[in-house]
From TrEMBL:
The keyword Lyase applies. GO terms for biological process: L-phenylalanine biosynthetic process. The record marks T180 as: Essential for prephenate dehydratase activity. GO terms for molecular function: prephenate dehydratase activity. Keywords: Amino-acid biosynthesis, Aromatic amino acid biosynthesis, Lyase, Phenylalanine biosynthesis. It comes from Kordiimonas lacus. Residues 202-279 form the ACT domain. Pathway: Amino-acid biosynthesis; L-phenylalanine biosynthesis; phenylpyruvate from prephenate: step 1/1. It holds the Pfam family PDT. This is prephenate dehydratase. GO terms for cellular component: cytoplasm. Residues 12-187 form the Prephenate dehydratase domain. Its EC number is 4.2.1.51.
Amino acid sequence: MASPTTQETDKLIAFQGELGAYSHMACQAKFPDMEPLSTPSFEDALAAVQQGRARLAMIPIENSTAGRVADIHILLPGSGLYIIGEHFETIRHCLLGVKGANESTLKTVKSHVQALGQCRKNLRALGIERLPFADTAGSAKHVAELGDPSVGAIASELAADVYGLDIIRKDFQDEGHNTTRFVVLSREPVAAADLAGPVMTSFTFEVRNIPAALYKALGGFATNSVNMTKLESYYESDSFTATEFYADIEGHEGMENVHRAMEELRFHTKHVNVLGTYEQERQRGR
């Protein structure tokens, strides 16, 4: 089989999961003219872009109900890729089963741990055991292959269509506003001058191990009127001695106030890793 040409790979966007995953849906919504490339893990999706087998990657970073997607904050800084966009996908989970299955026949339900958490109350009310699976669409594929009416899956309506499953109940998520934020990654950054409208800049940093280090590092954003919309801490290793932070701010370093704030941040931290500057898909509230 011939290797794909550069022109062909430029049309591919990688995502983690099987066809029918919510990441697949996000790819279709954001880039309807590109072809989705299914990969088994987040690392594989990033590697597809790093190695030139895909032009972009669509990666979930947080969910309005379940919070941060595990491992993403650790993977992004070391990937060598840049965030060039974002996408918000409304998550409408479906309770799925094989033909003839219903709520009374189901004993266990399989899905990604995030999806199980987002449907926890409804599953508990039905008395159904939760079994984690690698991803939502993969669980739908697995249930279709099992052919057992006692085993169901939580996945998208698209996954039900792809794998020929019955939709036992739509909108099965506990919260109606369930939304996942995705970031789009590329080998090349986007120049701030090429962006129109409100923009975001995402970065990670590590503070020095001194009293009030975080307070001093972030002070420049307050004094320079830079809106920080997100700040999360995480450990890069199991030592619990070096805390890393992930942050989103409005604006870019070409703006004088943002430049001053980032200068002050760099003075008070061990390192700063700018992940990318990109247009906001959804303007943040004030």
